[in-house]
Amino acid sequence: MNRLLLRCRWLRQCRILSSAKALAKPVAPERQGFTLLEIILALAILAGSLAALGEVMRLADQNAAMTRDETQAQMIATSIMDELVSGARALTATSPAQFDPDWDPQWLFSVALEEAGYVELVAVRVVVEQQLEARLKPARFELLRWLPNPDYVPPEMGAEQ
Questions:
Q1: DSSP state string for the chain
Q2: Which residues pair with residue 148 across a beta bridge?
Q3: What's the predicted TM-score (pTM) here?
Q4: What is the pLDDT of residue 75?
Q5: Closest by alpha carbon to 110, among 141, 69, 147?
Q6: What share of the chain has pLDDT > 70, as a percent?
Q7: Is cis: bond before 105, omega within 30 of 0?
Q8: Rounded Cα–Cα distance for residues 90 and 87 (Å)
């Protein structure tokens, strides 16, 4: 009797499973790969990323060139000031003149002597700038130092004693 009961249960379960399978919708085969829409969307994202990266690289290159030019202007101004301090160049006012005709772009420099508020000192201003069109944003650097006034004659020391 137990065997018959077990067989009956087993047959009932089989009938239930077979009827459930018959009622189920057919299963679509599993997808393999990407759709055309997914590929186009991925390519659009990649193109946008590359365009943004290209713009960042262009700005970085532009800033690096501007920094290089400003550093070069600072070095030229320091060089001219050192020549003035050492006496290798006369301590006189100079209108804009070329620094070195072989350099490209050309660099102009000028020296201006100004009053420092003390008769013993003179303010020396060295201005260096690139000779470029304004739209190219030429580099410019100013250096100001107080130096001993070459025209200053101290009062007689003997008169004070």
A1: -HHHHHHHHHHHHHHHHHHHHHHSPPPPPPP-S--HHHHHHHHHHHHHHHHHHHHHHHHHHHHHHHHHHHHHHHHHHHHHHHHHHHTSS--S-EEEEES-TTSSS-EEEEEEEEE-SSTTEEEEEEEEEE---GGG---EEEEEEEEE-TT--PPPHHHH-
A2: 121
A3: 0.67
A4: 95
A5: 141
A6: 78
A7: yes
A8: 6
